Amino acid sequence: MIGLISATAAGAAARDRLAAAWPERTRVYDGPVGDAVRRAFGECDRLVCFLATGAVVRLVAPLLGDKTSDPGVVCVDEAGRFAVSLVGGHGGGANALAREVAEVLGAEPVVTTATDAVDLPGLDTLGLPVEGDVAGVTRALLDGEPVALETEVSWPLPPLPVTDGGPYAHVIRLTDRLAGPAPAGREVLLRPPTLVVGVGASKDAPADEVLGLVEGALRDAGLSVHSVAELATVDAKADEPGIVAAAERLGVPLVTYGAEELARVSVPNPSDAPLAAVGTPSVAEAAALARGGELLVPKRKSERPDGRPAMATCAVVRRPGRGRLAVVGLGPGARDLLTPRATAELRRASVLVGLDQYVDQIRDLLRPGTRILESGLGAEEERARTAVAEARKGHAVALIGSGDAGVYAMASPALAEASDDIDVVGVPGVTAALAAGAILGAPLGHDHVSISLSDLHTPWEVIERRVRAAAEADIVVTFYNPRSRGRDWQLPKALAILAEHREPTTPVGVVRNASRADESSRLTTLAALDPATVDMMTVVTVGNTATREIAGRMVTPRGYRWQEEAK
Ligand code: SAH
């Protein structure tokens, strides 16, 4: 919950706007401000104070405890011009909240945390548990000192400005192993959620016994409890109180599998007891191995202080992180037609793959430390293969394309290469036909199709058959790749086929470099279009028999009868 505190009428007005925008997330604290701040500090995970920073500093100072647990505090000035992240920038979420508040109020976010200022993701904001000398290693990164990244297990980290080679005094280790003897330099341990602990338990096994067994198994194997991703067991034990409580205390989900599924998993130590009880010869090992991985700790049983038979079993499996491939459409060119989601994915990726001219389009958005693999025109298959190969190594990869990356672009060759051992995320982009449509007016108001006139990968007969079908079906057509120096007869031929079914006066829109600096557009007709004015930076949209030019704009009615009825 976000606590809102204000003193003046102007502050209260801004406060009410925020409360109206986020009714579910906010609570207004009335009354004397000192009192209100103290109550909100105790009850909320974040505060927005519509008060001077000085006043808030004095009020929260005596309340501050620990930056991992204190609420984040944001101040908004009397004029509502700035949203200042005051304390708890990372741990308390104040930096992110300042940006959100600024968005709602039309203010400027003020964030002074060093890592944010130089665009470094804070080591404590990577979404992974972190241990060690966070301050020292962060300082080294900020100062540009060499910091090594040692990855013992793969995990798709966002980019970090680390240095190859070494050894260096500062190290970030991505590992699920317990720290060895104290390192000489400064070290940060990032804990990827790579460990799955399979557990079995007889009825009413005590939670302490289950938890003690799990923690002991991890400790003896030199593994960190902070890397446990989940506990796993058989469906029949989904509500077994000792197992449920152990998962809760570890702060991880409990995943369950059917006995039949577990019975099919091959394990080193099957036994008769669980077969009789729940219908599978292995619970702990089979549940841990159900989604693959490497068995690090084979089945072991709990030891009871009273010497009675063990009531719990566990086994530990390592499941390395899956690489992540984001296929990101950059839109037609203009920065404000690049979606926020695309931006987030570009900044999430540690490896960027794309055509050099598209990389140039977004280079300034990339975080320091992003590895850029750019190549020239052509080489599409190779780009796709590279992107997939990097993701399979466990990296977070963004493969970029202009417009929408799935439209005559990289998504299909990449996904044709990709196996199911990586995660794939698609981010849609504004494709050229839509960008051009918005410039021309409303040419796509009824059924429409895109046809690429490039016969590089598609035989001309196939293209011609599709153009003919669109012509006969009276569908609006947008031609991509309409004409290049070496390919100049295809567009006239395609237009001639459409002209067999449409009037010479049918509107045709020609848009070159939509949303780019040298954008141009023209509205003409089937009879008057001069193909020489069309090149590879252009899309050509041909109307259907109902499309009209109205006030200089290209308009395709929503239906053939629709507009008549409206009259
Ligand atoms: N994935 C891209 C299309 C790639 S095919 C998209 O979704 O837009 C390349 C063709 O797209 C070009 O030959 C041209 O016909 C068209 N195109 C791409 N961007 C364009 C733009 N900004 N303006 C006009 N046409 C564009």
Helix content: 25-40%
Choose one word for the global shape. Answer: globular
Q: Fill in the CATH topology of the largest domain.
A: Methyltransferase, Cobalt-precorrin-4 Transmethylase, Domain 2
In the predicted model, the low-confidence regions spanning at least 5 consecutive residues are none
CATH superfamily of the largest domain: Tetrapyrrole methylase, C-terminal domain
Look at the structure and give the CATH class of the largest domain: Alpha Beta
Report, as a whole number of angstroms, the end-to-end distance: 53 Å
Strands of the largest sheet, in order across it?
A: 2-1-3-4-5-6
CATH architecture of the largest domain: 2-Layer Sandwich
Domain CobE/GbiG C-terminal: 195-316
Protein name: Precorrin-3B C(17)-methyltransferase
Pathway: Cofactor biosynthesis; adenosylcobalamin biosynthesis
Keywords: Cobalamin biosynthesis, Methyltransferase, S-adenosyl-L-methionine, Transferase
Describe the structure.
The chain has 567 residues and is α/β, with parallel strands linked by helices. It folds into five domains: 2-112, Rossmann fold, CATH 3.40.50; 130-190, no CATH class; 197-318, Nucleotidyltransferase, domain 5; 324-430, Cobalt-precorrin-4 Transmethylase, domain 1 (3-Layer(aba) Sandwich); 433-555, 2-Layer Sandwich (Methyltransferase, Cobalt-precorrin-4 Transmethylase, Domain 2). It has 19 helices and 28 strands. The strands form six sheets. Strands 2-1-3-4-5-6 form a six-stranded mixed sheet, with helices on both faces. A five-stranded mixed sheet has the order 13-12-11-15-14. Helix 14 packs across helix 15 (411-417). The chain is globular and about 95 Å long. Bound molecules: S-adenosyl-L-homocysteine.
